[in-house]
Amino acid sequence: MVNKMGLIQYIFRRLLVLIPVMLGVLAITFILTRLMPGDPVAALLPHNPTPEMIAAKQHELGLDQPMIVQFFKYFGDLFTGNWGVSFAIYPNAPVWDLIQEVFPRTLDLALLAVLFSSIIGIKTGKISAVHRNKSQDTFFRGSALMGVAIPIFWMGLILQFVFAHIFPIFPGSGYRAATADDPTPITYFRVIDFIIYGRWDLLWDYILHLALPAFCLTFITIASITRQTRSSMLEVLQLDYIRTARAKGCAENVVIKKHALKNALIPTITVIGMNFAGLLGGAVLTEFTFNFYGMGMLLIMAIGQSDYFLVSGIIFVITILFVIINLVVDIIYGIVDPRIRY
Amino acid sequence: MNETNVEVNPVPEAKLEVRKSTLKRIFSWTIRNLKFMLIPMSRIKDLSARQFEFEKIKSKRNFLQRLRSPLTILGIGLIFFIVTLAVFAPWLSPYTFKQLTAFLSPAYGPMSPAHPFGTGESGRDILGRCIYGARSSLTIALPAILISVITGVIFGIIAGYYGRWIDTLIMRITDVLLAFPPLIFALVLVGAFGPKIEMIIAIYGLLGAPFYARLVRGSVLQAKELPYVEAARVMGASNWRIMFRHILPNCISPVIISFSFDIGGIILGLAGLSFLGFGDQRLIEWGNDINKGRFYLYAAPWASFFPGLMIFITVLAFMLVGDGLRDAFDPRLKNL
């Protein structure tokens, strides 16, 4: 039985702790992005502006106010969806719209990677633990170590070379074919949009474009999931109740699947959640390698051109997702494991 | 260890006192005590001098034996290889630094006896750049990790030892810093302060510190309740002395374990940063070479393959040693 009141109190307490953390995050983001060398006024105005135009633009962007006022205005605007405009990459395009367009693609990648890596990682971790120190175990542990040590962009380039050049099965870069005629987005989630429009050819094309980057991210993510599943599985297999289950005559298969794995998976949930949070923000390298135009790619372009309203918007999205996913994982942890009391 | 059980063989009288130079004496003392300086857990209870020697050899043997798995030895060998490349780069590289950063032609030439790994951007030799790349990777990674370990350990001990509002304050700061994904934080910092090598070292030093602070704080919280801390306090030791002479040596082993992992992590992060084009352009960096070479991936795969292989080898080496150290320090964790 989950103690409902305790859980609600716990969530409430965690949310209270989140407030100072998010304030700190926002302050750091604000300071760092304002330190960037970009000049929005010059970028947004036509060539040779008059002083009046500059003053008007500064007033419009709120840049004529003291820094502390700007910070609180920035803080307030985050909640109203008024996140400023991009000035270097897409002049005058609202930041919110840009993020709304690219975020679903990053989410697609992260979801695919987490889905496949959880399925495979749990399986390999289980096999590793059951056949401890045997050849399967050595193989999976070795691959897991490789997954931690391999530079993801290098692996991406090798995959590109092999599967897009030598055996041209998958497209090597981009998120859509150059000739694709995308219908007007409804939900911005390409998969859902294409299903609504019934454009199965475009859906297939999108899936092909997703394949290589998603594979890269999956490979990296499997490593940590395998390691965690293996270690917690080994821990659980030594416990008394497993011996009881075996003693009462359960088949080994049942002992492992029904008794051991269920309890061993609890710490794995944390790892999966952290990986998911990391992927939403950390797919930067993969997106850059495959020219997959998602949020990471947009962030790199924005930082490269000091487009600081855009940078602070994207960082806000990434950090808040990171923090919220960690919170949700902690709550799930409590629901799944009845031993934990709040 | 019971003192009476140990057989004390009479030492043959020292024949003739051979006078060693002071430098030699310091050197041999350093070698003999290297383990005690590096591994604080290896200190032994008070024993007679002879027993001390005996125990020292025994525990050294144990530790080394535990460290002697084939994968760890492979890791140590690879680290040795990379460090050799970094230190002796000018002698090992077939071309000088100037030639490796000059504008030559033809660009992206194939592999040949003159260029065993082919040539990259502006006809620069890839083999030479791979060798010099070890230099810049280690030059950035080692100071960065030292900064983060020192800062992290100091703040972690202070937070764990004093507790109360100091603890809350420091832990909230680490919460804030850990809420940013590391690569993105590094990107934004580089974007704000410019891609200079000293800036990048400072950034990676800052990024690692909160992690170490949490690690150390956790073990300090356990250690400060132990009797020896009380004993030290009774003896009139100051807070700082207790923290850094008594608690620190007992809390440092998790730091040493993650130290090796983290060097690998930093080198990987650094390669990612320069792959994205945010590295110091004056340096020869593996990530940077891959970034340049990826546009010619289909025509000249060697230009991005070999630098990537070097990153992979280096990171793998540090991770292998990290794995081995963890097992050697804490045999219970082995196979977990």
List keywords for this structure.
heterodimer, A: 342 residues, mainly alpha, B: 336 residues, globular
Fold and architecture overview:
The complex is a heterodimer of chains A (342) and B (336). With 342 residues, chain A is mainly α. Helix content of chain A is 75%, strand content 0%. Chain A is built from 14 helices and no strands. The longest helix of chain A has 38 residues, at 200-237. By secondary structure, chain B is mostly helical. Chain B has 15 helices and no strands. Chain B has helices at residues 22-32, 34-38, 49-67, 70-87, 89-92, 97-100, 126-162, 164-178, 182-193, 197-223, 227-234, 239-251, 253-275, 286-293, 302-329. In chain B, helix 13 packs parallel to helix 14. The longest helix of chain B has 37 residues, at 126-162. Chains A and B meet through helix 1, helix 6, helix 7, helix 9 and helix 11 of A and helix 8, helix 9, helix 13 and helix 15 of B.
Brief digest:
The complex is a heterodimer of chains A (342) and B (336). Chain A is mainly alpha-helical.
